[in-house]
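S1.2 Input.
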Amino acid sequence: MKKILVDMLKAEVKPALGCTEPVAVALACAKAKELLGEEIVECNIFVSPNVYKNGMCVGIPGTTRLGLKIAASMGLNGGDSELGLRVLEKLGEEEVKISEKFMDQNMVKISPIETTEKVYIEVNLKGKENTSKTIIMTKHDNFVHIQKNDSVILNGEISLDVEYKHVDSPTVKLTIKELIQEIEKMDESDLDFLLEGIDMNMDMANVAIEDKVGIGVGYGIKKAMDDKMLSDDLMNKAMMLTAAASDARMSGVNKPVMSSNGSGNHGLTAILPIAAYNEMYPQTKEKLSKALAISHLVTGYIKNYTGRLSAVCGCGVAASTGSAAAITWLMDGTYEQIDGAIENMIANLSGMICDGAKAGCALKLASAASAAIQSAVIAKYNCVVPALNGIVGNKVEESIRNLGKVSAQGMTITDEVIIKVMDGMNNN
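S1.3 Output.
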């Protein structure tokens, strides 16, 4: 189990440059262009509704433009598929200008398709002599189909009509207590790679703390703290850091962040409240790395049930819950108190909707970070929502399953309506 969990962390906690949905589109485009090997005559891209929603309004590193089309254009005109989710890292100003011109020529056609698969990206390119096709599915960097002309290089199982299943991950065989006990048994050397996430995400946060970027949520909190309107305490520090990093990232600041379970904003929310706690109450590297492991794995545990993308904000219902569990552990909370912090989170932010990646995410991440600290602190004093309270069940694992049912099954129509509303406004 130790090896399984460490391998999961290495697979799910990785650097990403830009919002993961448009970056995944850029990655699929870069691979397709490399296969094509010539000038593009026609480009048709099909994406799942959730990828379409999450990429519609977000900033892309290196350009002031927003959305999937510019991300696709940049992937086609300078992306390097070998870099994975850092596919756009090597683009210079000239490549960005070429990409913007390519987009303005209306070369990129992107359409949502009907599918219950949350992450689906299909890129079809046509040149004068060749064609190419790539498909990413299930995870943002998971290629399931690669083809040039009639030569199929990779052909995995593809289904556009899937029923979400939570049994894929080994973690669901464990209780939350057992999961944390497994992490506690690990050596520092097993997990020290996670510490890079604090440095990387703090670097992004610092961009938007001293200067207003995006909405300026983190900047505004910092100014209010300077003016003594808000106190310089744990909750406000966690809000400031997490919101500032989102301000910068959603505006397209050209820096990578450490992602968690396929999302950069999840990574910010899973890591930065812990970083705030560490600033106020310094921890050893071993304790800090284990806390990060708890946060990422509890986040993944919840995402198994809610789905990788959904109608609810994953930062609010999953990543913040992971950080709440980790902070309770750092405060030497009992296993029961850690369960209680998770229950408090499920009772609190379970209804926060996801209306795509955008500047406004910084507000949601501020709320998520604040709720994480609140839930952890009151759980330490045994203030916990009782069993059978709303969707909170008899045990924490039941509560998480209930959250998954509401998200993955109960809010399908909500997701469709959110996308229609956003699409309608963008087409006006």
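S1.4 Remarks. The two ends are 52 Å apart (CA to CA).
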